[in-house]
Amino acid sequence: MHSGSWQPGYPYPYAWMGGPGGNMFPPMPPMPHGYGATPQVVPDRVPTNDTPLKPEAKEGAQGARKNIAPSNGGNIGGAGVGQQTARLQSLPKSLTYDGKGSWQAFLTKFGKFASIFEWTEEEKTDYLCLCLTDRASEFYALTTDRNVEMTYAAVVEKLERRFGYRELPETAMVTFSSATQREEESLDEWADRVLTLAGKAFRELPNAFMTQQAILRFCMGAREKEAGEQVINQRPQTIEQAIDKK
């Protein structure tokens, strides 16, 4: 056996005998059949038993990776849309204004609903549009077409100027002072009309003074004059007390 000679039966290079320095590496046994550097194919993806993601979950995950919100505004459950629908359905059918009735009465009722449901300024503008019909709706459309970015306060001011007509205090005072109970009017209807007229005639004065004047007009303008005078002498403090005493 010569130094550095290849030894038959040993397939590896380090089976040379008498390598550098005269050392001899121990012989290696032959590799069993079937072993060796057989290439192994590794799949690109290992299959799993996980349940596939639903489309909406995939959308949310993709949105998180891209730092964007899902297509429904970030609320996968759609609660925002549901809340808006519930608010629309909760509005009474009577909460409408066509440009013919009392604008102030409608605006007062609308303001109460806006306060109860805690509407934002933008929501109040949107819901106000939905409550307007006929002439009022047409005027709203013309007004907002000229200025799309109008605030709620600006829209109300425009509608107030158009439909919130108020008679002059002097005219309202004359109408109030000459009012009398009609033949077909009940006491309750007469009292309501007196309060409405008093509100217009004394709108700049304290409520206590307005109530006092309304009670006097209710009694003095009643069809039964004698009964009205008797009620005045009893000094009722409210219009309801005046009705009960008659």
From TrEMBL:
PANTHER family: T-SNARE COILED-COIL HOMOLOGY DOMAIN-CONTAINING PROTEIN
Organism: Dreissena polymorpha
Name of this chain's protein: Paraneoplastic antigen Ma-like C-terminal domain-containing protein
Sequence ranges assigned to domain Paraneoplastic antigen Ma-like C-terminal in this UniProt record: 99-203
Lineage: Eukaryota, Metazoa, Spiralia, Lophotrochozoa, Mollusca
Region of interest called Disordered, as start-end residue ranges on this chain: 44-83
Membrane-spanning ranges: none
